[in-house]
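This follows on from our talk about sequence and fold. Go ahead and set the record down below:
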Amino acid sequence: MIRKSNFLLLAMLPFLIYSSIESQARKLTLNDLHWLSGCWDNGDTLHRHEEQWMKPAGTSILGMSRTVANGKTVAHEFLQIRQEKNGDIFYVASPSGQEQGFFKLIKFDSGELVFENPEHDFPQRIIYRLKGDSLIARIEGTSKGKQRSSDFPMKRTKCD
């Protein structure tokens, strides 16, 4: 004899399985990356690195970065995270004095983004990790046959 509670569980089982599959199959959207929006900087007055990201809208999140050393802008970058029609998400970097680079999102966890382009000279990976009010941007890959990486730790700051 099947108890009512067991019967109820058996009756709900197909729905629970479907819901689990449905949530896993849901496509990632730019809104899932909303935590990146805002202003970030490393707080260093002599060698300052800062990034600013707009909120997701349409098919993009726009951003920019700047590095200032000893009172002079030594690097800048226009950034874009965009979602293609097929759902793929790309990080597009336009660094000062260099060609535009495209990196496909290959990993997304809560608070972590990994973009990759194995064909790019350097870096081949761009990683963002959120920990509380801290953001670590990391670039890594191979350059001239050697593994390299650089971390850019930043704190959330007020946008001026």
